[in-house]
Amino acid sequence: MCARRRSRKKTYRLERLGEFLPATLMKQRIFIDTIPPNLTRLWTKTVGPQIARQTGPCRFRDGMLSVRVSTSSWMQQLQFMKDEILDRLNAADPQQPIKKIKFFIGHVPPPPVSGVAPAVDDFDESRLKKRDRRLIAERTATVEDEELREIIRRAMVKEALTRHLRS
Q1: Which of 7, 38, 54, 116 is the most exposed place for a label (fewest CB within 10 A)?
Q2: Distances (CA, A) of 122 to 22, 31, 41, 92
Q3: What's the rounded Cα separation, in Å, for the pair 50 and 81?
């Protein structure tokens, strides 16, 4: 006599948007800053222009600042300077205490030419190629929530324009 196997129904677990959205955007090569804008300026001011060209803060959560570093040699050097950098950051902005800094190797975008990172609204959408406009319109057309659709559209415009600037 054969025992029958019960087929198990696939159960779905609800996830928070913050848990899966960063990974999904990364797969689609849409890069969105997840740190307060003043922290980027504070980082550049604290470490200086030479180190700022090779590094970039990318995440701030629960008092831990995650910083992307361009190469392993820079990461090793920054490990030696970690305590000094942490003290300088906390002295410069005591309202946002940083308890720990974590360095990891990753893509560090080149600094903007003007020295100030452009805001999303500063991008001139008229510089988009027709192909990019069409793709953005197609991808956002299925999003029902108007506010979410606009946020995704702006993120895609920003990514497309920064990609053109890099190339």
Answers
A1: 7
A2: 23, 17, 17, 28
A3: 14
Nearby residues of 72 by Cβ (< 8 Å), 6 or more positions away: 105
User: In whole angstroms, what is the distance from residue 66 CA to residue 39 CA?
Assistant: 11
Note the pTM of the prediction, 2 decimals.
Answer: 0.49
Contact 143, 152 (CB under 8 A): yes
pLDDT digits (tens, 9 = 90+) for 77-104: 999 999 999 999 999 888 878 999 999 8
pLDDT digits (tens, 9 = 90+) for 101-158: 999 898 887 765 554 444 444 567 778 888 888 989 998 998 888 888 888 888 888 8
**Residue 61, SS3?**
strand
d(CA 159, CA 105): 21
Q: Decide if 112 contacts 118 (C-beta within 8 A).
A: yes
- The answer to whether residues 121 and 83 touch, using CB atoms and an 8 Å cutoff, is no
